[in-house]
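Q: Structure for this?
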Amino acid sequence: MSGLTHFDGQGHAHMVDVSGKAVTDRLAVAEGWVRMRAETLDLITEGRAKKGDVLSVSRLAGIMGAKKTAELIPLCHPLPITKVALDLTADPSRPGIRVEASVKTSGQTGVEMEALTAVAVACLTVYDMVKAVEKGMVIEDVRLLLKDGGKSGRYEAAG
Amino acid sequence: MSGLTHFDGQGHAHMVDVSGKAVTDRLAVAEGWVRMRAETLDLITEGRAKKGDVLSVSRLAGIMGAKKTAELIPLCHPLPITKVALDLTADPSRPGIRVEASVKTSGQTGVEMEALTAVAVACLTVYDMVKAVEKGMVIEDVRLLLKDGGKSGRYEAAG
Amino acid sequence: MSGLTHFDGQGHAHMVDVSGKAVTDRLAVAEGWVRMRAETLDLITEGRAKKGDVLSVSRLAGIMGAKKTAELIPLCHPLPITKVALDLTADPSRPGIRVEASVKTSGQTGVEMEALTAVAVACLTVYDMVKAVEKGMVIEDVRLLLKDGGKSGRYEAAG
Amino acid sequence: MSGLTHFDGQGHAHMVDVSGKAVTDRLAVAEGWVRMRAETLDLITEGRAKKGDVLSVSRLAGIMGAKKTAELIPLCHPLPITKVALDLTADPSRPGIRVEASVKTSGQTGVEMEALTAVAVACLTVYDMVKAVEKGMVIEDVRLLLKDGGKSGRYEAAG
Amino acid sequence: MSGLTHFDGQGHAHMVDVSGKAVTDRLAVAEGWVRMRAETLDLITEGRAKKGDVLSVSRLAGIMGAKKTAELIPLCHPLPITKVALDLTADPSRPGIRVEASVKTSGQTGVEMEALTAVAVACLTVYDMVKAVEKGMVIEDVRLLLKDGGKSGRYEAAG
Amino acid sequence: MSGLTHFDGQGHAHMVDVSGKAVTDRLAVAEGWVRMRAETLDLITEGRAKKGDVLSVSRLAGIMGAKKTAELIPLCHPLPITKVALDLTADPSRPGIRVEASVKTSGQTGVEMEALTAVAVACLTVYDMVKAVEKGMVIEDVRLLLKDGGKSGRYEAAG
C-alpha cells in the first residue's frame, strides 16, 4: 500500500515514527464553510451586534478543538501547539459562514490535522447553535489551504 | 435573537435547560464526503483487501468521536448514547468516500450533533491517513439526513 | 471518620454508592469572585463593548468546565447535566468580576460540585486572559449558594 | 484593548503565538485556602492518622488537574510539565486547609495557570470530600505567589 | 462471525444498539495482581504506615480510570456509574498486590469493562510508582469475578 | 521510603521533577496476553479474514490508549510521543492473543508506562469485543520487555 504511511509493512495501522525528523517550525492553514439560508445568516450577523455571538462561541470551540486533535484522530501525534487563531466571517454571497484556522508548532510533524480539526469543530458549533432555526445547513469545502515547514516543504492549495 | 435557543434573554450563551423535557428515544442520521482523486480512492479500496484498512480505522474514529461530542461542542448536553454505527463506502463516481453515521439515545435532547460529529471525525481521519498521497482532498456535504424523537418531531433532509 | 461519606469502613476512599437513591431533579447555584485593581476591571468592561470579550470567553469555559467535573474531582459521579448557565458581572465596588453558576440535573446525586467547578474554571479563565496586565488578581469567596433536590433537601447559604 | 494579549487586533480571542519565544525553564507557585469550621478541620486532621486521608486524595487531584489545564482554560497552550508538587496543610488559625502548588516546565510559555489550576482542583476536591459535613466551606485567596523564567522575568506576590 | 456482537452483518465494528434493553441495576467485580519481589512488596507495605502510600494513590487511579472506560474502549457505551470501590491488599504469599474493583450502575448495559479497567489502571499505577525499584513486575490474572443484572443474568468465575 | 521516587521527603506523592534531565531518545517495549479458550481464539482468527477484525480494533485502541497514559496514571509526565506500534498475534499454543507495544519519544523521561498502558488497553479491548462469547478470559503476563535511553540506561527483561 505504497504511499499510505500510516500502515506498516504488514498493512497494520500504526503511529508513524517521527523520532528521526528534525524539529522545525510548522504552520498550517485550513478553511471550511457552513452554508445556510440568507435569513439564518441574517440572524447570526444581527447577533454580532448584541452580546450573544454565534461566531465567538464557535471560534473558541475551534481553538479548543485544535488542542484535542491527537485525541480524536487515532494516528495523530500529540504536539505542543504554539498558536491557534480562527477567523469566522459571514459571506452573504454563498450565503454562509466561512471559517479559517491557522495553527503553528515547533515540532517533528506538521499541524495540518490541527488546522482542519479546528475548522471542523468550529463549523459543527455553528451548526449546533443555529440548528433550532435551520436543520438543513451544510458543512462544506473543508480543506487545507497552506502547509509549511518539515521535509515535504510548502504546500499551497490551488485556487 | 429569537430562535437561537443557545442564548438567554440577555444574549448570553448558555446550555439550554432540558430538565423539563420528556425522556424519549432519539435517532439521528448524518452523512458527509471526502472527495479525492480517482487514483487516491483506488489506493484506499485496494487496501481494503489487505489487513490495513483506511475505512475501518476511520469508522472507529467516528464511533469514538461521537462519544466526545459534548466535550467538543460547548453548549451540547452530555448524553448516554445507546448506539453508534458508521458506514464508509467508496464511491468512484464522485470520486471519494461517503460516510454515514447513525446514533441513538434515550434522553431529553437529540443526537444530531453526535451524528454530525461522528461523520466529521471519520472524514478527518480519512484525510489524515491519506494526506501523504493527496493533500488536496476536500471534506464536503456534511449534513443531517434524519432526526427523530423529541418534541420537535421528525426531520428528513430533502433530496 | 463519621460524616465523611467518601471513605468506607476501613478509611479507604471510594465513590459512594448512590444506586439506591431516587432519581430527582437537582439544582445547585454557586458563586465566586476575581478581585483585581480598578484599572484592570476597566480594561475588561471596555472590552465588552467591542467584539473581544473576557467575560464571554470565561462564561463558555465555565460551562465546558462543568461538564468535566467528574474527570477532575476523583470521587464525583458522572452525571447527565441538563442545564448550565453562568452569569459574569463587573462589580466596581469590590472591584472585580463576580461569577455565578447554576446547574441542573435529574439524577441520583447532586450537582454542587458541577456548579462550584464551573465557577472555579470561569474565574481561572478570567485570570488567564488578564494576567498580562495584573498578576496579583485573587480568586475568592467561591462557595455554594443554593442546593435543592435529593434526600438531604434544600440548602441555602447564609447571607 | 491594549494589554490583553489574548485578543488580536480585531478584538477576537486567539491562542497567542509563542513560537518565537525562547524555550526556558519556568516555575510557578500558587496558593489557596478552603476555609471551614474548626470542627470540620478536626475531622480532616484526625483522618490523617488513619488510612483514609482527605489531604492525600486532594493532593493527587491537584496534580492530575495541573495536567488538564490546557483542556480547561480555552486559550492556554499545552505544555510538557516536568514537575508538579502540592502541599496541603491544616491551619487551625484560619481555620482551614492551605494548598500550595509548584509547577515546572521547560517551554515557551509559563506555568502560572497550571499552578493555579492545581490549587483550584485540590480545593474543590477538599470541598467535595467534606461537604456532607459542612456545605458552607469557602474557597478563598487563590493567587499566584511566584513566577520565574521567560521574558517577563520574575514575579513575586507582595506579602 | 456469530457471537461477536460488536460486528454488524457485514463484519463492521459498531457500538451495539442497547436502546431496546431494560434499565436494570448492574454490578461487576473484577480482580488482578501485580506480582513483584518480596523486598519490593515490603517497601510498599512499610510505606502504608507512613503518609505516602502506593496503595491509596493506585486505588484513586483505579476509581478515576473506571470513569474513563468509554473513552478507552472503542465500542463501550458511556454509562452513569453509581459506585466504584477498589480494594488493594498486599499478599506476601504471591508475593504481590491484589486489586479488586466493584462497579455499579443502573443502565442498559453492564459494567464489566468498567471493573476490569479500574483493575488495570490501578495495577499500572502500582507499577509506575514502584518501577524505580523493580522493573520486572508483572500484571497478571486480571479477570472478571462476578457480573449481575441485565438479560444475560449472573456470571460467577469458577474458583 | 528509599527508592520510591514518587514520594517526597515527607512521604507525599508528587510528580517527580525531571526538569534537570537531558532530553534523549527513549524507547520502551511491553507485552501482554489475553488467554482464552481455543474455540474463542478460532472465532477471532476467522474474523481476520473478513472485514470485521477484533485485532485491528484492539490495536487502534492500544495506540490511542498510549496517548492517554498521563491522564490515567496520576504521577506520569505528559510526553510528546513520537511513535506507537502494536502487534497483536494469535497464539494457538496458549491459546490466546499476544499483544506487543513499542513506544518512542524524545524527552526527559521514559515511555515504559506508555508501552504498558497501550498493552493493557489493547487487552481490555480484546476482552470487550469477545466477552459475549467467553467471560472467563484472563489478561496476564503484562510486563516490560525493553527500555532504552535516559540515565538509568538499558533494561531488558529476563527470558
